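Lab manual, section 2.4: Encoding a predicted structure.

Procedure: take the sequence of the chain (377 residues), apply the prediction step described in section 2.3, and record the output as structure tokens. A sample record is shown.
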Amino acid sequence: MQQAHKSLAALIVSTSYPTSPTDWRGRFIASMVQALAKSGELDIALWSPSGDLPAKVKSACIASDAVFLDALSKSGGIAYALRKRGPLAIFSVCRLLLSLRNLYKRSAQDVLHINWLQNALPLPAGKTPCLITVLGSDFGLLRLPGMTAMLRCTMRGRPVLLAPNAEWMCASLQARFGDMASIRAIPFGVDDIWFNINHQPMLQPPYHWLAVTRLTKGKLGTLFEWGSQFFGKDHILHLFGPKQDTDVNIPAWVQYHGPTNPQALSTEWFPKATGLITLSQHNEGRPQVILEAMAAGLPVIASRLPAHDDLILDGQTGMLVDTVDSFRHALEFLSVPANNQKIGLAARDWIIANVGTWDDCAQRYLNAYRDLLKVAA
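Recorded output:
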């Protein structure tokens, strides 16, 4: 009989977490924590904004931290504050770093799981093993002068595993930190609801396309510029997401629906849509909405970025575009029923084989925690 693993005490740190099932913010963190809790192998303390926690997961926030994190989340998060700059951004950064510093000093868990490199900056000296999830936005942080050196200082003297959620990030992280930390890509999982969708689009005009994104110039990319030539009659664009940049003007030909949630997308929109479009020029890691669309059998048209190249085999599991002509071709190609079905099914098969569910992701993290503890022993 296989010997049961001893329960580990883990502190999970995140500056994003959904306040309710319909909240779009930090959904992947909620799925991650739920899957880890379901494993039964961890005692989890979660430091994050307020929200519905899974059974047996306790909050690691003191009262003042909870108030600060909730306010920060409602205002758009730390990344939004940094984009806006100004005194409020400086205050938010200082307050966040101080709160994290105090959290790490008072914590006594077996392992730390820190989401986003920025949240590792205040780590005090210590021996507690640390897994740091690295996302695409972290590469903007790493471009700041002195940031790599500061992070190296925080990692020194403890076992560290940097866990980007996509393979394409590994080489750069290896060059910066490979002499003092292990580098291992750990893909996020996909919730079961996306695999259970029966994608049956109405493949005749008008074709209904979805864009699900935060409304910033970087995230939208060339969507409005290129889309103005194709959307309006035979092709209709449905746009979902919070408007985070106030100077973004939404064209009249776009059907804007505001922020959305998994329930609405999985039951109302994904089953009948022709495809998902993302023309982002943002620092993407591995966009969760693309994983979910592919798992649902929904073809994806995406801009050529390392994050999208890492996910999509052009012409096989989706369409990659870098010019207005290639965008036109992708729209026309996926409007053909046989092409749409073939690409969608291949995308779903790829996700099943290479990504899996959040339970699969949780097992990957559990294996990583135990490897870290072996190093620490």
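Check your result against the sample. The chain has two domains: 8-189+357-376, 192-354.
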